[in-house]
């Protein structure tokens, strides 16, 4: 009887042990083991979406994608680690110590070596026939037009997780739209690694990024970049910028600046060049600003084109003397002549007629001191000093574009309003977004507000045409065309005062004056051959305008 | 004598075939399912081949697109044009204007 009971107890004990062990494996470690097992019979793959392209107005790609590879090492298959590291680093130009460290780390079955290797390099590495070296497909950005419009486009780098991310320009601003959404694939596989159709099959298709179609015209951009490069060399300028905009839509037709960078090798360039000065750099506009103040005076009817002003000498404002640019004074002159001769005292008169409140209001209406809303990353604004802090001298200097800072895009947009019957438009780089299925999202031109009346716009246009035909830059103008414009030569503020020699030379204008096809700003910083806008930025403007007339088939009226 | 079968006997004869029919039908379906499943289970190789082909064609398409973009870039066109003898346009003559030569002689 005792033996029977003993045997029963043993069986019960054994049963408890088995149940406990089963509980441990199935409940306590169940999830972990299930996941480990699923790696053996499930094939999991992350599906990388293709990044969207950036296309010019004629649908040619400015930025596209091409096949590239990631090189990786499988340390367990490497026969000679030192030899492996030396051969790889020689071709890929990497640090030998870092590679050796990666491949010799314990319990590593896979180690990344280099990203974005092109086909040629991959073939060279393959010819080495090194055991333990493998390649995985990925894609990288390709620029058919090389570094054209680099600062407008931006570049693609990696974020902290190693994922492709757009920085600056359009790549930064539209990064989410361009990158798309990754997908995933989970397939049950057999012993040979082939998918089992009857098994688990979960697929989330990757959604490729949207393509961007720009207002940018490749031919106009090419003309602008070529002419700007020539001008930088000819006039010995440190920096330069040209922007061409359609005044009716706000579309950016071209934008070039120097110095720039190569988006393929962006890491080799100074980071300061990544920012697009069109939206990020501020400057004092100088005499180009007179067009806006004069239009404000005309709109408020505090002056008319034939209103006269006596320019007899420097004008005293508080303890300051406001002189003309060449210290020459012409006696009685009309507002037409004030603009033609770029008279600072004459503009002080206009500003005083307007008064601080109205002048300040017009600055705000023209969008000075506010972001334009352009779709490029990195837009900066220079705040206008609050109206309550304005003294007489601020009113005076703002009238001729000193003591006030603008970005180039703010300046060209404001002048575009004069060309567009007084309507201020939101500048836009992207015209359309096209999703992978072909569905198009059009970005409509956006009118921000009406700044001046159409009648005032016509009057200021005629005054600007006269300023070009009769002003200091008339020698450079293409004959026969009606171009509305204004030169600007602004001193550069340095440590609380203005530099005696260094200037920012600029010219802003639009043509044809009667039905403007484009508005353009040319800007040269510290030209060494001459400080004057009429001798540097103006000829650059007219050289580009001449090419644009040919390109657009615009004949003289 | 009445030789016609009793109704209950007739019913028995008819109903006894139904299970065989149903059973045969189920058996056929089972066999069909096994055959289809077997075919599907071994189609993984075909699926892999098709997906590889799709991948190759997609890559070829990307390569072709890249080549087209390269050949139609403005720099390439400029170089080719120069090679063919084209020059930069100097000064266009517009027919809507007075011609620069003495065509309008009195």
Task: Summarize the topology.
The complex is a heterodimer of chains A (557) and B (106).
Chain A lengths: L1 H27 L1 H12 E6 L6 E2 L5 E13 L7 H12 L3 H9 L6 E7 L1 H10 L4 E10 L7 H4 L1 E4 L5 E4 L1 H5 L1 H5 L3 E6 L12 E4 L6 E4 L3 H18 L3 E7 L6 E7 L18 H4 L9 H10 L8 E4 L3 E3 L2 E3 L8 E4 H6 L3 H11 L1 H10 L26 H8 L8 H12 L3 E3 L4 E5 L5 E3 L4 E4 L3 H17 L13 E11 L2 E15 L6 E8 L11 H16 L5
Parallel strand pairs in A: 2-10
Antiparallel strand pairs in A: 1-8, 2-3, 3-4, 3-5, 6-7, 8-9, 10-18, 11-12, 11-23, 13-16, 14-15, 17-20, 18-19, 21-22, 22-23
Helix pairs in contact in A: 3-4, 3-5, 9-18, 11-13, 11-14, 11-17, 13-15
Chain B lengths: L6 H9 L2 H24 L2 H28 L2 H10 L23
Overview of the molecule:
Chain A: InterPro entries: Beta-lactam/transpept (IPR050515), Beta-lactam/transpept-like (IPR012338), PBP_dimer (IPR005311), PBP_dimer_sf (IPR036138), PCN-bd_Tpept (IPR001460). Chain A: One of its GO terms (molecular function) is transferase activity. Chain A: Residues 48-194 form the Penicillin-binding protein dimerisation domain. The complex is a heterodimer of chains A (557) and B (106). The model of chain A has no long low-confidence stretch (mean pLDDT 91). Chain A is built from 18 helices and 23 strands. In chain A, strands 2, 3, 4, 5, 10, 18 and 19 form a 7-stranded mixed sheet that branches. A 5-stranded antiparallel sheet of chain A has the order 12-11-23-22-21, with helices on both faces. Chain A folds into 3 domains: 2-42; 65-143, Penicillin-binding protein 2a (Domain 2) (Alpha-Beta Complex); 218-264 and 277-552, Beta-lactamase (3-Layer(aba) Sandwich). By secondary structure, chain A is of the alpha+beta class. Chain B starts with 6 loop residues before the first helix and ends in a 23-residue tail after the last helix. Chain B contains 4 helices and no strands. Among the domains of chain B are: 7-42; 43-74. Chain B has helices at residues 7-15, 18-41, 44-71, 74-83. The chains are: A alpha+beta (557), B mainly alpha (106). The A-B interface holds A 60-61, 64-67, 137, 139, 142, 144-146, 148, 189-190, 194-198, 218-219, 222, 480, 550, 555-556 and B 37, 40-41, 43-45, 47-48, 59, 62-63, 65-66, 69-70, 72-75, 89, 92, 94, 96-97.
